[in-house]
Amino acid sequence: MSLCLALNPVTIKELRQMVRSRFIATGLIGYLTVQLVGVSLVLLSSSSQTHSSVGLYSQALGQSVFHTVFFLLSLLLLLCIPLYVGTRLGLERGKEHLDLQFITALTPSQFVDGKVASAVVLILMFASGSLPFLVLSYLLRGIDVFRVLWAFCGLLLVAVCCLYGVLFLGAITASRVFRLFMLLFVIFVLFSFMVAVNVSGASMLSSGGGPSLSTWQELCGFAMGVLLIAALCALVRTCTVAALSPPHANRSLPVRVWVTSLWLFWGVLCLAFRLATGKSEGVGTWTIVSVLGSVILLAVSASMPCGHSRRVCAEVSPRRWVRGLQFLFFTGAESGMVWALALGFWTVIATHAMNRFEPGMRPEQGWSSSQAMTVFLYLSAYVCSVRAVWLYGLSRWLPPRLVGVIALALLALGGVLPYVLALDGRAGGLEPTALFGNVFAVFDRHCGYLSDHFIYAGVWAAIAWTACMPSIFDAFRRFRRPVCAVRTEEAAT
User: Fold this and answer.
1) Which of the 8 DSSP states describes residue 423?
2) How far is CA 180 from CA 177, 186, 236, in A?
3) Residue ranges per domain, the chain?
4) Would you tell me the crossing angle of helices 108-139 and 62-75 to the nearest 10 degrees?
5) Terminal C-alpha separation, the chain
6) How buried is residue 167: exposed, middle or buried, by Cβ count under 10 Å (0-12/13-18/19+)?
7) For labeling, which of 116, 171, 341, 462 is most exposed (least CB within 10 Å)?
């Protein structure tokens, strides 16, 4: 009884529905039948060359059988099961079933963990059904058992990662049209993952590659890769929990804490690796991901409504100095914009400080501090400009969620239009004023106007940031005031 109480109620409910449902039983029987037919076709295709068991054994059909089984298993684990789990959560997030998640005492984290646990059980059940066929592929020779285990474990790891991503997309409340486009996007991404996993598994078996873990460098690299994947899965889980949380909760707090912690940990790790080995590849990757991630978070924050709701502000600390720090980690457009701008700005400052140890860093190793700052200024200028225009003119006609979409459209237009105007397909013959707003020109080798772009982007970003500052200051002033005073003022008005 104590074990039953320790289990997640959502996991128990999902497993009971799987046991009682004919869909899962029919799917398992059908999957085993398809596996059997596929392996039989592979073996029968070689019957024209050999008619004895000795000849079949000497032909080494292990790779052909493994590729067939592995393809069918990846099709199920990377495409069918994630779509099944994500669709179920998406239907539960519909308007007709949305109240069921608010009248229960279960927390959003219990919902996410229960869904993931039941999906992992489903994955292991179908994967265990493929083990006899994988053993048969090893007995038919031509493959290494360690390579088979590496490919099998890698497939399970990718399947769990896909589960977290699909659950996050299923937890987002959106219109039917947006959900349709999102479903097509998810199918395309999952199919791409399936193709990549099959290609990497086939190449690993044919060439005999794969992680050997024979040296401490390979072991450390493998451990860091697994740690990074676990951190990203935890981040996606946090985002899913935030999406399932009620509107009056502070959804942004766990997400921003996780992103800030991951950003800081990765930066310190890159700095330690840079000082220990003298290589700067990790610094460049950290800079690219951090700058682009901060701009994406800036666009998401700019697409939120203004200010903070009264129920969210009820969680604000009564201490004044604590409220000033809490402003960065509370749900709201202005708080998110300040947090994202600070994240990108400190990324550029840290990159400049780390590049001073090696001033002659090659461009292929990552972005230089000037390029990183220029890209950050340009991208943030686009987002803040659209946000300022929406604040001062378009807020009556357009909802705030279109701010990020409009900024992305203008960014694509500003990056493509100068190259379209150049008849030779290059921007080398254009003046820097004609390339104003073009982020891609910062990395164009035929264009040597990086300093001009830095000035243009800095001036534009300063104007855009200044235009957004009044709303940020107003939100910060209201946030720092005690909650009782805000309620008294609202009651009086």
Assistant:
1) T
2) 5, 10, 21
3) 1-246, 247-493
4) 160
5) 56
6) buried
7) 462
Distance of CA 121 to the CA centre of its chain: 23
* Closest listed residue to residue 370, CA positions, set 465, 451, 457: 451
Name the E strands within 312-385: none
> How far from the centroid of its chain's Cα atoms is residue 485's Cα?
40
Residue 450: half-sphere exposure toward Cβ, Cα within 13 Å: 15
Say what the pLDDT of residue 412 is: 81
- State how far the Cα of 170 lies from the Cα of 186, in Å rounded to an integer: 10
Contact between residue 334 and residue 418 where contact means Cβ atoms under 8 Å apart: no
Q: Which residues contact 256 (CB under 8 A, 6 or more apart)?
A: 328, 329, 336, 339
What is the identity of the amino acid at 474? D
Indicate the pLDDT class of residue 286, thresholds 50, 70 and 90: confident
Angle between helix 333-355 and 281-302 (nearest 10): 160
For residue 443, the tally of other CB atoms under 10 A from its CB is 13
What whole-number distance in Å separates Cα of residue 441 and Cα of residue 449? 8
Question: Radius of gyration over alpha carbons of the chain, in Å?
Answer: 27
pLDDT digits (tens, 9 = 90+) for 331-367: 778 888 899 999 988 988 888 877 766 544 444 455 6
The two structure tokens encoding residue 25? 């039983």
How does pLDDT run across 19-39, given as a tens digit for each residue?
787 878 888 888 889 888 888
Q: Decide: residue 103, CB within 10 A, 0-12 exposed, 13-18 middle, 19+ buried.
A: exposed
Helix (H, G, I), strand (E, B) or coil at 463: helix
SS3 138: helix
Residues 6+ apart with CB under 8 A from 459: none
Please tell me the number of Cα atoms within 13 Å of 238 on its side-chain side: 19
C-alpha dist (Å) from residue 253 to 238, 332, 339: 10, 11, 11
Which of the 8 DSSP states describes residue 430?
S
| C-alpha distances out from residue 60 to 52, 99, 142, 151, 400, Å | 13, 58, 5, 19, 62
Q: Which residue has the tokens 């390029």?
A: 371
| pTM beyond 0.70 | yes
